[in-house]
Specification:
alpha/beta, FAD/NAD(P)-binding domain, 2 domains, five-stranded parallel sheet, 11 helices, about 25% helix
Amino acid sequence: MSDHEHKHAIIGAGLCGLGVARAFKRSGIPFDVFEADDDVGGNWYHGVYETVHIITSKRTTEYSDFPMPADYPDFPSAAQMLDYLRAYADHFGLREHIAFRTRVTRVAPRGDGRWEVTPSGPAGGAPRVYGGVVVCNGHHWDPRMPDIPGTFSGQLMHAKHYKRPEALAGKRVLVLGGGNSACDIAVEASRFGASSHISLRRGYWFLPKMMLGVPTVELLKPWMPRWFQRRFLKALVRLTVGRYDRYGLPHPDHEPFERHPTINSELLYHLRHGRITPHPDVRRLDGDAVEFVDGARERFDLIVAATGYHVSFPFLADGVISWKNGLPQLIDGIVPPSHKNLYVFGLGQPRYGAGPLVTAGADLLCTMVATQQQLKHPLGALLARMNHKPPHTLLQDPFQVLRSVRMSKRLLPRLPRLEPLLMRGA
């Protein structure tokens, strides 16, 4: 057996990868971490714009076992988030397990439950055989560009590539999208650009960052059923914001939490001050002009597409994971039904605050790894026999996730005894 076959390979040293590494180290599961960048932090290191602050609160974003510094504000900046993740890695001695500037180019099953991992970079070379693989490559790195008829003679960029407000200076800016990045960039364009416009394909729920004197996300409590959370937020929005059409925005075409909420206090402020102009969807591009579906035309120098990201695992061998409607078909969003010792961690997008979910989920992952070692069949196959299914959306209810984690912690140790019954005839 090679030096690696008793280990798990963790791909990525961002918020999720670090959380998994910490849990594995605490549980005594040997591991190596591969990180393409030269430092920890993932999206907080290389992906966000300089002026961004978290949209949730520090209490709902921090790891459960590593509180953020007491002097951090309710909404830490990108720099503070990166410092926090670096401190987490240092505090738990995780750096010694990380191969930096090392990108994983291929992960393929060997047929015996082990995996062949091919790294590139300083720690690269020949493929290595690992006992298992945990994919933590994130979902904010593969930009999804819109398909719009016509051609644009100005600059067209994805929000992923926007880093600082100097890129907006003196320009007529159009932002496509109504998510959190779109709103932040439109607000910055209202300050630094010659003009700021935002185009929305549909209505969104725009929630202020603070309501009743506390971060909005902290108003929601575990004891509240979802129907009550929705009515509660609707009432607060009506009292604090009013009707969205008064801001020139369409009414949401969905209930709260059916899609990822937009948490931003400044967009509505700047709309009412005339610093941002709202538009419906774009019909076509024509040189430096943009025609909207309502017939209006405006000229722009820069279009920023804040249109989301693809979920992708370019290093995984073909056929390892099946896809449906752009979503990987992973049981409970973590394990494939046909392969052992492969886990995708952090794929879901919680409505707010990932830190506590990472801590609890990484602890559950340790239990999954220990359980899989006692099974003849893939863990995903057993769970599928118990009617566990791939999620139909990446959006997650944090309270439901934590409840599911607690239930799974009780279920998993029983699976080795249930396997003969569950897999009869397989």
